[in-house]
Design brief:
The protein is an all-alpha fold. 90% of the residues lie in helices and 0% in strands.
């Protein structure tokens, strides 16, 4: 049944997003501690520290892409009307983010 498939996709994407956010906080703390330990060492190779920071950023991007792809799989299962509703929701979210960004930036 198509509806069951859709709800399974939705539940999977929502759970993965929730798990990702929970794990993100722990990963960030661990990564911060790792980088701090590297730069605390006398004579630390800052090129190696920068490389590790780049690696951490790339790992995070992979996780964000995987989460985005799960949500796009849900999107692909929507009908045309639902896709339009999703677009309007996403647009309003982006508009709010833009307004908050200007407020924080002092514009």
């Amino acid at each position: 049944d198509q509806r069951l498939y859709f709800f399974m996709l939705l539940a999977e994407a929502a759970q993965a997003g929730k798990d990702s956010m929970t794990g993100m906080h722990d990963r960030f703390r661990q990564q911060h501690e790792e980088i701090q330990a590297l730069i605390d060492k006398p004579g630390a190779d800052l090129r190696a520290v920068a490389k590790r920071m780049d690696d951490i950023q790339a790992e995070g991007q992979k996780l964000r892409n995987a989460n985005r792809d799960r949500w796009l799989t849900v999107y692909d299962a929507l009908n045309a009307e639902q896709k339009e509703q999703a677009r309007v929701f996403f647009k309003s979210h982006m508009d709010r983010m833009g307004r908050h960004g200007h407020e924080k930036g002092g514009k």
